[in-house]
Structures are given as structure tokens and as C-alpha cells.
Amino acid sequence: MTNELQITRTINGQTYSFALTERELEDAYRLKERRYREDDFVNAFADAAQEPDMRFHYGHLAEFPELLDWLCRLYDDIFDANTSHNDLMELALNRLRDESLTPGFFTSLALLAPPVCEEPEEAPPEYEECGRHHCGQNITEADERRKRWEMLASLLTRHKEADCTCHGKNGTHAPCAAAKYLNGEWDISEFFFLQDRKDV
Ligand SMILES: [Zn+2]
Prior knowledge:
binds zinc ion; mainly alpha; two-stranded antiparallel sheet
């Protein structure tokens, strides 16, 4: 026997009845839970972004949807029924603080680069609301974002391996982009929109 939820709706005077399977109910529940989690992180970020050792500011959440995705996935990974929600949130933000200084962090963001929908001839209203999936933009954007995150991961790796201008590469001793980011001189936007890597 399967459990189903019967739903009746009256739309334009017509009564419609449909049933949600247990699986569909579970999916709907997970989606809702995920939305709450995102809202919680957005709120927590308003405070966390004020701290000097945080590499992100509030606006980055909208600019880089990968970030919120990373936080929500981490929350699920570290979830423990004996730890309070607030402690888990704090733990996740602390991890973000530490891991955002490592190449591996940028590699994971590359994997999370949002899927892109092809622009429909006439965009239905939900496309306009759906900023997080980059609806209505060309498919190349996700590839571009992926490449960009991968490039940043490699800049950090090269800096760690002393293969950068900080260490006299190309005869200069100017701080490389990764060093500027690590020192907090650059925030992620400057780092992300880096035009070329010749200066590394
Ligand atoms: Zn360097």
C-alpha cells in the first residue's frame, strides 16, 4: 500500500483533485527544508560578513549562488541530531572561513556552478524570478563560471607551491592575485573577475 496525499483545488470555478505520492511529498518537504536553510544562512551571513577574517560580504551570496549551495551541502554533511541548529550554522560558517583559503574550496565551487537553462522565446514569469539558476542566460555562462573557479584554485595552488610573482617568477616580486586574496586586500569579486593570469 502506498501513502498518498489527496489535494483538492478550485481554480477558475473548476475543481481539480490530484494526489501526491509519498516520494513527491518527501521531495516537496526537502525542497522546503532547503529553502529555510538558505534563508537561515542569508540571515547569519549578515553578521558573519562583518568579521574581518571573513573573505565574503553579504552581496556575494546573490552574486555567487555556489556559495549558498556549498554552505547548505556542508550543513547536511555535518548534521548531527545532538548538535543544535545554531551551532551547526556557526560550524559551517567557521568552515567557510578556513576552507575559503584553500584551492580545494574553489574546486568544489567549480563543481557547484549552477546549471543554466536556455532562454525560452518568451520567458514565462517564473523564469524572471528564478535568478538562482541563471535562467534566460546562455549555457556558456556555467562553463565560464566553472573555468573561473578552477582557475582560482590553480592560482592558489601555484602560490602555495611558490610558483608565482611573490616568489620572483617573471623576475618580479609583486604579490600575486592569490596573495592579495589571502591577505584580505582583495575580496572574492576582484579575485573572481580577474582578467588574466599573466601577473602570476
Ligand atoms: Zn603568490
